[in-house]
Amino acid sequence: MRPSLTGLLLVLTAVTGLVEAVSLLALGPVFTAMQTGNVLFLAFGVAGAGDLPALSSALSLAAFATGVLCGARLESAAEARGWRWVQLGLSAEAALILAGAAAGWGVAPRYGHPAAAHLLVTALLATAMGIRTVTSMRLNVPGVPTTLVTRSMTALIGSSALGHDIAFGYGTGAWRRRALAVLAMFTGGLTGALLIRAGWTVGELLLPAAAVVVAVTAVHRTLPRPHTG
Fold first, then answer.
1. How far is CA 217 from CA 19, 137, 168, 222, in A?
2. Domain membership flag for residue 17
């Protein structure tokens, strides 16, 4: 069976769940993909409430913004030249996650008061997730944004028999894709949390994520080249 773009993006959504488990539980508290959380963590940290460090959140926000800038320039330039821009974006993401694994090799997970190594890995992962967000937004597959599931969950509930909202696709099969996106994020997060409980180091935790992104990059080459609007 030929792989589908939606299927590959669902796999990447699971990778996000794994990466965020590492970020929040082994490096944080900090997010590297879901930047809404970092904006709030930063606000709470500046206010001195909840014992939340502001440095990790500020670093992640800055690194994510850098990743978005690099991803946008890289992928738009590649598409203008007729290159496979998706592969370039995913390859850059995989390289950054591998760099994070190298920087975190032998580093024990720590929740609260991160050391320099934890901050370095956070910056690398946030840059990777910034590039990923550009890639998924340029592909624009409805219901599978890969780096968050709030909109997918809202659309899933709104289009259900209880929500009954045609604007969200009530009466269509879109709910399956949205439900799978939520499930993929949960599965990735659960996997990461279980590996942390099993005693894996930060570097070991990131190797599976990098390997999956490399595999998705290779499989995507078999699909037709996408074009943005």
1. 17, 17, 31, 10
2. yes
Range 169-175, long-range pairs (CB < 8 A, 24+ positions): 174/142, 174/143
Which residue range forms the structural domain that includes residue 125?
Answer: 5-141+199-220
15 falls within a domain: yes
Q: Of 131, 144, 13, 34, which Cα lies nearest the Cα of 78?
A: 131
Domain assignment present for residue 179? The answer is no
Nearest to 180 by CA among 60, 57, 8, 58: 8
Nearest to 14 by CA among 219, 209, 195, 223: 209
Q: What confidence tens digit (pLDDT) does each residue in 114-172 have?
A: 999 999 999 999 999 999 999 999 999 988 999 988 888 888 898 888 887 888 888 88
